[in-house]
Amino acid sequence: MSGDSVPLALPLSRLATGCEATTLYRELRKPLLRYLVCLGLSADEAQDVVQDAFLSLHRHLASGGSQENIRSWLFRVTHNAARNRQNRYDRRFSAPLEAGLDSALDEATPEHVALEKEKFRRLRDAIRLLTESERECLLLRAGGLRYREIGEVLGLSTSTVGDTVDRAIRKLAEKCNV
Amino acid sequence: MCEFTGKLAACLDRELSADDHVAVERHLQICAECRGRVEAYREVSRAFDSYCDAYCKTLTASRPRRKLPRPVWAASGLAVAAAAVVAFFLLAPRARVPVSPVETPRPIPSAAILPLQDGPVQAAQAAAAPVKGLPRTERSRRREQISPAAPPSQERDANGFALGPAVEIAIPADAIFPPGAIPEGVGFTADVTIAPDGSAQQIRLRPQLTEFERRSTQP
Fold first, then answer.
1. CB neighbourhood size of B78 (10 A)
2. More confident residue, A136 or B1
3. Which residue of A8, A46, B28, B105 pairs with B185 in a disulfide if CB–CB is 3.0 to 4.6 A?
4. CB–CB of A34/B56 below 8 Å?
5. With contacts defined as CB-CB under 8 Å, which chain A residues touch B59?
6. Residue A86 distance to chain B (closest CA, Å)
7. B199's torsion region: left (phi>0), alpha (psi -120 to 50) or beta?
8. pLDDT tens column, B145-162
9. Residues B120, B110: contact at Cβ < 8 Å?
């Protein structure tokens, strides 16, 4: 890290990148954390990955990297880091979006939203039927990414993302009967 | 199923080209079935979003903040206590000097206890490990050894935790200093108060006369 030390008198361009990184951090930290946790990472792991991603972003911007598509760039970095962890520890992110929610809903949800609980249960059962790609597309879409950006994160064409999202939404709507 | 069904999700997400979007909007005005589908897609998208929020919130809130098992903390507390004891003996031998002459037992009472020991070797072993070695002799001596560790009335703080010594470690001087450096019968006691989190809250060291002196002062 000693090589990355910031001089006291910052050039204007680097100051601007610093401000942009801060703005992005405020805007995207929560969606990124949510995406990672929903992928199956623990909260601690997700924190680590997001922090590393913003460190990479800082280096990327400071070294004059492209400022276009920064949102999808960040999601791609975190997505790849999550997959690397999965491979490194040789474990599947078993039952993403399932584990522990049932008991939490039973404990924490007030009675007057019992209908909501039932809806969540049906939704969880429907999410089980989604393929990994469909689930990832929906998660990134819920994170506010456009189809083009989702394609950049997952390495898919925009039209493929459109088809995948359409298929996933249709499955959920049919199973949830809403 | 009409030809626009495959474009409804993209229309909802405003991902269609301007021409396609207009065409789908026009279709929706005349097709109630597709209008219902778009509404269902919108609803299920919202539900998915809430579900992700609830899931994330649940997992984040329910995790233990610290994952270190408790024994590690207890062990680290003991390590701190042990380090403090060692540091005391390394750094403060001079502070002990004024204390020991005052309360040094005379050789005469120690001679009275010698017949209880089997021999000099066992006496040295008993001095090196008083807590384990002493119960081999008399029950009354064991009581004397244990009694200071549990005073009958302990001070307590506002939370009800004992302020007095919770753990007493008896350290024989012979175990640390060369033979003859410390008058026979003098040891040190470390009162270690363990905090609720397992760390050493307070360590108090004091010179202590061993069983010889106590026996001579008690009736």
1. 17
2. A136
3. B105
4. yes
5. 37, 42-43, 99-100
6. 18
7. beta
8. 444 444 445 555 454 444
9. no
Nearest residue to A42 (alpha-carbon basis) of B70, B68, B61, B69: B61
Residue corresponding to tokens 């005005």: B29
Instruction: Say if the Cβ atoms of A147 and B10 lie within 8 Å.
Output: yes
* Predicted model pTM: 0.55
Per-residue pLDDT of B4-34, as tens digits, reads: 888 999 999 999 999 999 999 999 999 999 9
| Minimum distance, in Å, between the CA of residue B69 and any CA atom of chain A | 16
Measured between alpha carbons, how far is residue B93 from residues A9, B40, B99, B171 in Å?
Answer: 54, 82, 11, 14
- List chain B domain ranges: 5-62, 84-217
Residue B27: what pLDDT? 94
Tell me the average pLDDT across B90-105.
Answer: 50
Domain architecture of chain A: domains with CATH: 10-88 (1.10.1740), 101-176 (1.10.10.10)
Interface test with A, best of B16, B20, B51 (most A CBs within 10 A): B51
pLDDT (tens digit, 9 = 90+) per residue, A49-86?
Answer: 999 999 998 888 888 877 788 899 999 999 999 988 87
Cβ neighbours of A8 (radius 10 Å): 5
Alpha helices in A40-145 (DSSP H): 43-62, 70-88, 101-108, 114-128, 132-142
Q: Which helix (H) or strand (E) holds B203?
A: strand B200-209
CB atoms within 10 A of CB A140: 26
Note the ipTM here: 0.81
B161: helix, strand or coil = coil
Nearest Cα of chain B lies from the Cα of A174 at a distance, in angstroms, of 9
Q: CA quadruple A29, A33, A36, A38: dihedral positive or negative?
A: negative
Task: Give the nearest partner residue to B55 out of A97, A165, A169, using CB atoms.
Answer: A97
Q: Write the single-letter amino acid at B64.
A: P
Query: B142-150 long-range contacts, Cβ below 8 Å, gap at least 24?
Result: B144/B211, B144/B214, B144/B215, B144/B218, B145/B170, B145/B211, B148/B189, B148/B208
